[in-house]
Design brief:
The chain has helices at residues 32-47, 70-74, 87-99, 116-122, 149-158, 161-168, 176-181, 194-205, 212-223, 235-240; strands at 10-15, 18-23, 53-58, 63-65, 105-109, 112-114, 126-130, 136-137, 187-189. With 254 residues, the protein is an alpha/beta fold. The chain has a six-stranded mixed sheet with strand order 1-2-3-5-7-9, with helices on both faces. A three-stranded parallel sheet has the order 4-6-8. A hairpin with a 2-residue loop joins strand 1 and strand 2.
Length: 254
């Protein structure tokens, strides 16, 4: 499907130092076109300079994102959802990009977030969820679908062990208060305040992106290749042998 004829699925705005990426295509189901449009928006975000933060939100009053576009996946021939063959690779790369974006990121979960919708929310640094309605859920096991290892790693890095097991094995639906209590989200807000609260939170954090090289490096050391928290060596060994390990930009060593 030619990008010129694809539906608009995202909108990017800027409010001071905060970029607001709004998913604006119904219940925001995931397909290749959505991934491509988010990537183009992030290109613009990353071209900016100075303090900044990103908020991802939804224009739909009920759904943040309703997961994979199953109708597109089952269709044949040309479809506005784009090339099915590349979806898994480009979607996973996008999740990694959001997870390691060199600025603070806040997800405004105003409604249901299922499957890939839950995953993209977890890729953000902070999640603010509607208090009264909506669920976050990885329901693949209910659909007879296995969660691939890279996605399991994403869930494990972002959730406590108990919440991780409940999410990927028991397909738990996390409502607002339970999600907050389990650390799945960091804050709750009224329905009409989720987006504004997310923008306010992002504005407070934007100063941390003055040194984007540092934030990007730190996120890579948490989630990227040879991640510090996954190394077989224990922290005491690493501290005793600090010069054997990566320093990062603007480190404090003499």
């Amino acid at each position: 499907m030619n990008s010129a004829t694809a539906p608009q699925m995202v909108q990017l705005d800027r409010e001071g130092e905060v970029f607001v990426l709004t998913l604006c295509h119904g219940d925001n189901r995931w397909n290749t076109t959505l991934v491509e449009q988010i990537n183009r928006a992030l290109d613009e975000v990353e071209r900016s300079e100075g303090p900044a933060a990103l908020v991802t939100a939804s224009a739909d009053p009920k759904f943040f994102s309703n997961g994979l576009d199953l109708d597109w996946l089952a269709s044949r021939g040309e479809h506005p959802g784009g090339d099915r063959r590349v979806f898994a690779e480009v979607a996973m790369a996008l999740f990694a990009r959001v997870m390691t974006l060199p600025m603070p990121t806040v997800c405004a979960v105003n409604g249901h977030g299922f499957g890939a919708g839950f995953m993209i929310a977890l890729c953000h640094d902070v999640r603010i969820m509607r208090a009264d309605r909506g669920f976050l859920c990885a329901n693949e096991i209910e659909l007879g679908m296995a969660i691939p290892e890279p996605e399991l790693a994403l869930f494990r890095h972002k959730l406590s062990m108990t919440a991780f097991h409940q999410t990927v094995i028991l397909a738990k639906r996390w409502g607002g208060q339970e999600a907050l209590d389990a650390g799945v989200v960091q804050q709750l807000a009224d329905a009409d305040a989720v987006r504004t609260t997310a923008v306010q939170t992002a504005a407070e954090l934007a100063r941390l992106a003055r040194h984007r090289d540092v934030m990007g490096w730190m996120k890579e050391r948490l989630y990227g290749d040879q991640a510090a928290i996954n190394r077989p060596e224990g922290p005491a060994h690493m501290l005793r042998n600090l010069h054997d390990y990566a320093e990062g930009p603007n480190h404090l060593r003499g």
